[in-house]
């Protein structure tokens, strides 16, 4: 039985759209607001959207176990689903339509172009721009029928104690790993400062895209892709004890990337046809003619 066959439709898709998660992250980390103040406001903030997001995290924290991650890697890192040019993969991603409010929300391609264009406007290297453009491509997992909580959401290490700095930590009470003595200590299956290359992260679009691109992009780009949803570290510093010096150096890039991801959303949608040839050239410079999903 495939893992997701165990879940009801409601458990697979607790959110109205996957953008709801990112909208919620933006409320948690609003631009220019002091972290402690933002946190307090986030906790007090109450509306029906929030209940949806809470349910999303309840499921995420319950089901993202060490074994679940190993199973998903086995399932998806064979890349035996589709093979296509990167631009086509982006268009494929864009078939993931947001039915919550089509008039206001930008589609996936527009979010990615805005992120990339903001990076380009600040004069960063072209591989950084390209990273901004493709960083959410792993969300195609949704189109393969994956549960929303196994595609988006904050990521965190599995196989060791869950930090209380992760959003809604109380929901980890339902995760069976907290009763497993292999996984419930500070270091669990890892050793002090072993480096994130040895650490299994919860499964989602970040880890998936990392494996698709790992042979082609400069290392800072790969860190941005792999850890952009790891808020517990890049915003909260909760996993210093697993990081090595190289991770710390590379996380400067992850931190540099995050504001472009969160704060580049402007209501004026980018015009895809005007930008397409620039991004096609960038893709051709760094990535192979086709990628396997
Ligand atoms: Fe993302
Ligand atoms: Fe994003």
Automatic annotation (TrEMBL):
Keywords: Cytoplasm, Iron, Metal-binding, Oxidoreductase. One of its GO terms (molecular function) is inositol oxygenase activity. InterPro entries: Inositol_oxygenase. Its cofactor is Fe cation. Pfam families: MIOX (PF05153). GO terms for biological process: inositol catabolic process. One of its GO terms (cellular component) is cytoplasm. Its main location: cytoplasm. It is found in: Cytoplasm. This is Inositol oxygenase. The lineage of its organism: Bacteria, Pseudomonadati, Bacteroidota, Chitinophagia, Chitinophagales.
């Amino acid at each position: 039985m495939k893992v997701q066959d165990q879940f009801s439709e409601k458990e697979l898709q607790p959110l109205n759209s996957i953008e709801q998660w990112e909208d919620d992250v933006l409320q948690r980390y609003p631009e220019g607001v002091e972290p402690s103040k933002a946190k307090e406001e986030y906790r007090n903030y109450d509306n029906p959207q929030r209940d949806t997001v809470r349910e999303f995290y309840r499921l995420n924290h319950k089901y993202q176990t060490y074994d679940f991650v190993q199973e998903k890697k086995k399932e998806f890192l064979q890349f035996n689903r589709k093979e296509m040019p990167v631009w086509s993969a982006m268009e494929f991603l864009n078939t993931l339509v947001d039915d919550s409010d089509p008039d206001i929300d930008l589609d996936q391609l527009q979010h990615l172009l805005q992120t990339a264009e903001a990076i380009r406007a600040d004069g960063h290297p072209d591989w950084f721009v390209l990273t901004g453009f493709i960083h959410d491509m792993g969300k195609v997992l949704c189109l393969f029928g994956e549960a929303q909580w196994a595609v988006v959401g904050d990521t965190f290490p599995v196989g060791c104690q869950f930090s209380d700095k992760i959003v809604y930590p109380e929901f980890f009470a339902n995760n069976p790993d907290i009763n497993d003595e292999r996984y419930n200590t500070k270091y669990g299956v890892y050793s002090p400062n072993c480096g994130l290359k040895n650490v299994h992260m919860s499964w989602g679009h970040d880890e998936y895209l990392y494996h698709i691109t790992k042979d082609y992009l400069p290392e800072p780009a790969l860190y941005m892709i792999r850890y952009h949803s790891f808020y517990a570290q890049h915003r909260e510093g909760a996993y210093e004890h697993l990081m090595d010096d190289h991770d710390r150096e590379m996380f400067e890039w992850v931190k540099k990337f995050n504001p472009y991801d969160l704060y580049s959303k402007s209501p004026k949608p980018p015009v895809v046809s005007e930008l397409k040839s620039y991004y096609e050239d960038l893709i051709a410079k760094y990535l192979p003619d086709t990628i396997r999903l």
